What we know:
Elements: H1 2-27, H2 51-55, H3 60-63, H4 77-101, H5 108-137, H6 166-175, H7 179-196, H8 208-214, H9 218-236, H10 243-261
Helix pairs in contact: 4-5, 6-7, 7-9, 7-10, 9-10
Amino acid sequence: MLKKNRRKIQLYGLLLYFLCIGVPLYAQTEAPATHGKDSLTYQIPVRQTPPDALRSFEGVPEQYNTADFDYSDTSGQNDAFLSGFWEVLVRIIYKILEFIYGKNLQGNGAQHMLQLLGFVLILVVIFFVVRWALGRKGRWLTDRSKEKLSDIPMDAIEKHLHQADFPTLIQKAEQQNDTRQSIRLYYLWLLKVLSDKGQIAWEERKTNSDYEREIKDPTQKARFVYLSKVYNYIWYGEFSISDVQYQEAKADYQGYINTQKKK
């Protein structure tokens, strides 16, 4: 019984072997040719285009020369840039609000809030740009014409700092032997030059300490502090000084002013 089963297994295995070999060989046989013509000598039929169809393409070159097909115009690139910038800005603001309030930020109310915040942000940027520009150039909104004034009252010099003719005003004070007024004029002249050079932002209500903090160079700051003390001592302290002391202070002021002018 065991031998019969073994023979059956061997027979089935042999039959399965021949089937596995025969199927691939049959699959690799070429299919019979469906046509008897040689493809190298077979002529492909030519399709004739009706004359009416050719006439429908007349005028195409002229059509593509119109402004609608002129892609060299880049005038719309600026608008596209601004539009893209605004979209990015709104997206950033939306992400910030979404981070703060969660993902329930939806609806027209959210859209209006985004527009309002974007408008406020633009105003803030403009404010800081204008403030920076005014800080670099001093008070642009005051009268700063090129005409020098030498007849302005002494108590109004601060209001016309950038118009005052300081050499002439100092000469008049020296002719009157008013050394206190001369030192004051030298100090105001010094502030004018520092403002013109962008070292300080001149404002009438500022103090010497305010200007001291604005000067960045340590050496120039130390000299400015010294000249401020001389001014405070003579002008506000109402101390009289000798001609020698005045000439020394005058030389210090002139040296500092000339140094700033050369920058």
